[in-house]
Design goal:
This protein is mostly helical. Helices cover 45% and strands 4% of the residues. It folds into two domains: 3-41, no CATH class; 63-154, no CATH class.
């Protein structure tokens, strides 16, 4: 096959790659009198000798864990009771579903209306929704237990 024919059929890349794969062993005679045994094909590299970077496992916290930590910081001594009230309240409101909605267009774990008032990342962030919900409850009712009592008495909070 001629050079032009090989080029036309795309074989030049194959020939070039084959020639590049052949390496000479250092210290052996190369030349007119050398045997073909001096040419050795290079080993095919299967994996890099460099160890892969160790990826740190990111543990995703549940919405209840996030809320428990925030309540514990805020309510110190009464955090267990306050978290239990908050857990019951938001279970009735949204089932702790970050994407919960209702016909009046309230959204998220605390059922904010409109949802955008919860701030950046409000659609998918449990943390943003919980922080906003705790701030709302604290400002309006004083504590999660007071908000829970109001919700049970009136059907809303």
């Amino acid at each position: 096959m001629s050079y032009v024919s090989a080029r036309r059929h795309g074989l030049m890349a194959l020939v070039t790659a084959s020639l590049l794969a052949i390496t000479l062993v250092p210290g052996l005679a190369v030349g007119p009198g050398a045997s073909t045994a001096t040419a050795v094909t290079a080993p095919v590299a299967t994996k890099s000798a460099v160890a892969p970077a160790v990826k740190k496992k990111v543990v995703k916290k549940s919405p209840k864990t996030i809320a428990r930590e925030l309540i514990q910081k805020k309510y110190k001594k009464t955090h267990v009771a306050q978290f239990n009230c908050l857990k019951k309240l938001w279970h009735r409101e949204s089932g702790w579903n970050v994407h919960a909605g209702n016909p009046s267009r309230a959204y998220g774990i605390p059922q904010a209306l409109p949802g955008k008032k919860m701030g950046a990342g409000w659609r998918h962030s449990a943390t943003a929704q919980i922080k906003w919900g705790i701030k709302y409850i604290d400002g309006r009712y004083g504590s999660p237990c007071a908000a829970d009592r109001h919700q049970r008495a009136t059907g809303w909070y």
